[in-house]
Design brief:
The protein has 237 residues and is α/β, with parallel strands linked by helices. It contains 8 helices and 7 strands. Helix content is 37%, strand content 15%. Strand 1, helix 1 and strand 2 form a beta-alpha-beta unit.
Length: 237
């Protein structure tokens, strides 16, 4: 709990048995997490079994896809503040306080992984991926008049329940380009948005989203097409 508000953390999970125990323990160690929701997105390993054993709440999402898993988790979460994260070891649980400190004045607090100061050795944030995230984020910032953005694809973020109730029924992306839609819809509802740098380290196992150049380019282009589609959409609510 943080200043009287309950905190839910959501982990989208597809075959994450290698690190799920450690990730749960890491976020639990902060002392502010009231609920940890692991979304089993058709795992073929022991992810769900381990998560339940460690005290997490496991929900199932049969529709394959990163966006589908996150939307499911947000729909099931019970907290006043809903935090999206990853169970792969890339984020530090203690960075949740960086997001929480902004809740006095903002409704959507986004993490950014593109600040070199916060990149750990071995993090999957090479030159192409880093600048790709920055460029797409700047396009979104410019086209929708959003406060400064430097990362379009950082999962680690916090959304307040009142804002989530507004955008959740409108979210439509089930794939890996889900994150920009969440920001754009929040802006359409005049939400107060801010970005804060978070630590980013090497993941356990291979990334399902940006584990190859082909996947990276595919997701980046999908994000750009999504941004342009919303930019010229006349009836978005």
């Amino acid at each position: 709990m943080w200043q009287g508000k309950k905190i839910s953390v959501i982990f989208p999970a597809y075959n994450e048995e290698e690190n799920i125990k450690k990730a749960i323990a890491d976020f639990r160690s902060t002392g502010v997490v009231d609920e940890l929701v692991v979304v089993d997105n058709n795992c073929k390993d022991r992810t769900s079994k381990i998560a339940r054993r460690e005290g997490a709440r496991v929900v199932k999402e049969l529709r394959q896809g990163y966006g589908n898993a996150l939307r499911c988790g947000m729909g099931k979460a019970k907290g006043d503040y809903i935090v999206l994260a990853e169970p792969d070891g890339t984020f530090d649980g203690k960075d949740i306080f960086k997001l929480l400190k902004e809740t006095d004045k903002d409704e959507l607090i986004l993490g950014t992984r593109t600040n070199k100061k916060f990149l750990k050795d071995g993090a999957n944030m090479g030159l192409l991926l880093r600048w790709g995230n920055i460029i797409v984020a700047k396009a979104m910032q410019f086209l929708f008049k959003i406060p400064p953005l430097t990362d379009c694809g950082c999962t680690f973020r916090l959304i307040k329940r009142d804002l989530l109730k507004k955008i959740l029924p409108k979210l439509s992306v089930g794939g890996s380009h889900f994150l920009p839609e969440m920001v754009i819809l929040s802006k359409f509802y005049n939400a107060k948005i801010v970005e804060v740098p978070v630590s980013y380290g090497p993941r356990v196992g291979r990334s399902k989203i940006t584990g190859s150049l082909r996947k990276t380019l595919t997701v980046g282009l999908a994000m750009l097409f999504l941004i342009m589609r919303y930019r010229f959409k006349t009836n978005w609510l």
